[in-house]
Write a structure and sequence with these properties.
775 residues; OB fold (Dihydrolipoamide Acetyltransferase, E2P); 8-stranded mixed beta sheet; 16% strand; globular
Length: 775
Amino acid sequence: MNGKYLYLAISALLGLLSTLVQFCPFFLCFLLYWLWLLKWKQFNKPQLLLILLVAVIFSITGEYATAKNQTHIPESTTSFLVQFIQDPKIDGDLLQIQAEEQRYNEKILIRYQINSETEKHTLKSSSFYRGICSVSGTISKPRIVKNPNGFNYRGYLASKGVFWIVESPKNPFSHCTVVGTDPVKKIKELRYEGIRFLETSLPPEVASLSAALIFGDRSLFGAELQSDYQKTGIVHLLAISGLHVSLLVGMFFYLGIRIGLTREFMVHFLLFLLPVYVIITGGSPSVIRAVLMIFLVLAATKWKIRLKFLAIDAISIAFLIYIFVDPYIIFDVGFQLSFSVSFSIILSSQYLLRAYQNYLAQMIVTSIIAQLAALPFLLYHYFEISFMGIAANLLYIPLFSFLYLPGLYFLFFVQILFGKPPDLLIHIFSNLINMSNKFISHLANFSFTSVIPGRPNPILLFCYFFTILLIFYIWECSKIRKRILFLFTLSITLLSFQYFWNWIQPVGQVTMIDVGQGDSILIQLPHRQGTYLIDTGGTIQFNEEAWRKRTKPFEVGRDVVVPYLKGQGITTIDKLILSHGDMDHMGGAFAVLEEIKVKEILLPDVSEPSESEINVMRLAAEKNIPVVKVYEGMHWNKKGTQYYVLSPEQKFTGERNRGSIAILAKIGGLSWFFGGDLDQEGEERIITKYPKLTIDVLKVGHHGSKTSSSGTFIDRVKPKVAFISVGERNRFGHPNQEVLDRLNKRNTKIFRTDQQGAIAYRFYQEKGTFLPFLP
């Protein structure tokens, strides 16, 4: 089976996907795969039976994992007996920590709001692995995803075996009984103390990179810097990669031999050290993959197994072991990227890399191979890719691997042994890291290097995989005529066919995005002929003490609206319409303007703009985006759709909600009324001026407040459908029951974002269907 364990790994993956995702398509894939092995690879009967047996075993493994991955804790539970199993995450005034409930033998996530800066420092220095604690609190399920392409937090935690979040009003470490601890928890405690030691002993820029490369912890990094690493395609360098593990193992082995230790002793030592290293670095998929591969090779050497382990065999067996122990890991993006890139580089090393003798050429080719292998996963999870990654990796991989990694390990051990490393070394590393971080931030601003085709659907995802495999095949086959032309054509196809797919779509869509207590409505015309965004939602920021501030506080524009737009493959907004100056309608505009190209901004023509409106106009001026002040009587048409501005009056003076932009639109065979937070007086003025106004779809004003949607207005316009954008369990009590009663009395179909998530109206020509994201 030398060199053929890869086929077992593929069989196992298909078997697992058939039970964890969907049976029919992956069962069909397995049948085609099995026939390919029979006809083209000419596997014999024992080999084919083994392939079938592996698929069946992993299919059963998936079924068992699904059955086991259920909660047993009653929803009424308020007190818990727990033992903590992970490092706490302390971000501002919020502490989060995973624990195992002892009575139910089940993981839970405990959250606690810290009361003072002194308590925060005490918690950071606390030892929490050595006790069993009594914790009380309110239990709730993690939030669900309520927008297409949004982050499924509940699904993410469920894949880790966590089904409940406990909000504890008291310090979860306050009622603990000290008990004996096992070696694993001692190593975890050592890891946590090591991270805190770095944080308090070294300059911030040195401490953050040291914690990432030594302990696999990125909590000391700022949110902006991590975002810059992500945009430049080198965020993987902040994780402990397989290359790092190999370098460290090689370094330890070399030093051991040089000081006179035998090879046999070093093999035994490394076999003991590798599992410890997995725990002390946080057990990321890339570390586990590399450790499993090296462990297999060392074990084969130790026990003199006669099988000659090829690299492809080692990674295939590591893959089989990993997904057998933890089937749900296949949904982890780190696992997907680590194994896809590693498999591709190992397979390509036999043919592609050997064709390039120059070191720089090999680096470039390796970077291209890695980018190709990661492409489908990056698009699926992040909706965009950066070509800057190829160039950035050429510079930063050697910098991290041969300077930062050994240098920061050296500083760490000197710090432990002598209390303080030489100031000169700290100064050198501090300046070097600062310079490289500044350069990364400059690279991240090169937006023209990014491609945002959006999240691929299953058909497009298959096309990506097939095209990438075809590129690798043609690249390796030097005998193919016009190979360069084929590769160039396939590469252009790879980067453009999703854009083409988006462009040919004859279906348009109006979507009320769930932004919580705010408004945001996206209008997409067929064939990408027009894209309008009405409001952006927004998060109200309060002045807080410095110690309470989160590293990356939630901001609806950056965390909801922009990901939704990118997931749809939207790179340009023709008109950004901000109905009025309240933060819950335009606070997210700043993130949208930073991330998405906007051709024009529409603001209400008011005599006294709000501070938010002034700031938007200032940012628009910096980006050379025209700002248009709109008032009643203005209108525009676009590809069979019409838009009429009914409010406000020119140079409006008065209450801000009353000055909201109100638009009557004709889209997809229906008439729509988008009125921002227009109040009852504003509604009365409109129906007085336009007595024959009728509406098919009403965007209910002010989130269903009783100050809007009067009975007179509803009776006059006779809406068939009402959209209410409102936050779940909001403190204002929206939507008001009187407003709901008015709409129900007139047989108006009501859609609410708090109950149904995003609401879409998908239309073709003059007919369409309403599709709530949640049933």
